[in-house]
From TrEMBL:
<feature type="signal peptide">
    <location>
        <begin position="1"/>
        <end position="18"/>
    </location>
</feature>
<dbReference type="InterPro" id="IPR023614">
    <property type="entry name" value="Porin_dom_sf"/>
</dbReference>
<dbReference type="GO" id="GO:0015288">
    <property type="term" value="F:porin activity"/>
</dbReference>
<protein>
    <submittedName>
        <fullName>Porin</fullName>
    </submittedName>
</protein>
<dbReference type="Pfam" id="PF13609">
    <property type="entry name" value="Porin_4"/>
</dbReference>
<dbReference type="GO" id="GO:0006811">
    <property type="term" value="P:monoatomic ion transport"/>
</dbReference>
<keyword id="KW-0472">Membrane</keyword>
<dbReference type="InterPro" id="IPR002299">
    <property type="entry name" value="Porin_Neis"/>
</dbReference>
<keyword id="KW-0406">Ion transport</keyword>
<feature type="domain" description="Porin">
    <location>
        <begin position="6"/>
        <end position="312"/>
    </location>
</feature>
<keyword id="KW-1134">Transmembrane beta strand</keyword>
<dbReference type="GO" id="GO:0009279">
    <property type="term" value="C:cell outer membrane"/>
</dbReference>
<keyword id="KW-0812">Transmembrane</keyword>
<dbReference type="GO" id="GO:0046930">
    <property type="term" value="C:pore complex"/>
</dbReference>
<keyword id="KW-0626">Porin</keyword>
<dbReference type="InterPro" id="IPR033900">
    <property type="entry name" value="Gram_neg_porin_domain"/>
</dbReference>
<keyword id="KW-0813">Transport</keyword>
Amino acid sequence: MPLVSAALLAIACGQAHAQSSVTIFGVADIGYVHTSANGTAGSVSRSQLASDGNTSSRLGFRGTEDLRGGMKAGFWLEGALAIDQPGSLTLQRRSTVELSGSFGEVRLGRDYVPTFTNLTVAYHPFGTNGVGNAGQLFYPVAAGGTTSSTHVRSNNGINYFSPNVAGYQANVMYAFGEHLSNEGATKQNDTYVGGRVSYANGPLNLSAATGKTKFATGDYTQSNFAANYQLGAAKLMYLWGENKVGVTKTTSNLVGVQYKVSGTGEVRAAYTDLKAVGVANDATQMTVGYVHNLSKRTALYTNYSVVDNKGTGKQFVVGGGDKTTVAGGNTTGYEFGVRHSF
């Protein structure tokens, strides 16, 4: 009898393992960063160790359970890490519970808004990391008392992803502001609604997205269009983005490339032009970089970037550096580091 019981227990454990799983995952990314900005009293510079030059450092837990009949349940809890300055880990990245099946996938909780997806490394050579990140010229500029809190993620979201049908896929999201009915739009984000449609067929990928968040001080609208095309060893990229905050607007256009020079090395380059209306100033950014994969999990990287403010502008900077104090001045930055995924 003890042998029979042990056998039955082993079978039960095997079935449970086949039906559900939990994974611990993460990224540790750290490097040396040097930034400088010209000023009225000479240039000012800063050197530091910093996280996230190539990929955002994180620690996460995800799991799935097979509900049978093609249905699955899952969860995803992910927090940000600062490798150079470790502190409390908060689940401020993705924090969702989801159901998926033939109908697609529904996520509840904190997640990327559809309008952010086109700013990632799939359509921008440097994504939103390091001195070449998309955030510098593609995120909104605060105006009229409105500071956006939904240009990357939103809390309280219902996020739906359709099945992929012949290369087409849709993503729509509604996020509650959770305010009282007689409060109106609060100074924090009220409600967000947005959507994204993408198409992938062989070497060609296309995607368009738009979303709007209500604010008491002026609504924020983000729209973008992205395309990439794999031409031999080169992935050619184009990204257009527009941010409207009240009556102000910034519009950015990027052309870029990721070019594999070997089985382990990739050169990256991007040029972005920004036009501003009623806020900040026009600007351009040029970035070049190189990523060398030591293995499937570990890579070395280096990037160099220049942001040039136009006219009398001083708004835009490279990385986490200081602003220029010269009208129409520029900022520069370079970095090299290591990224390990687990």
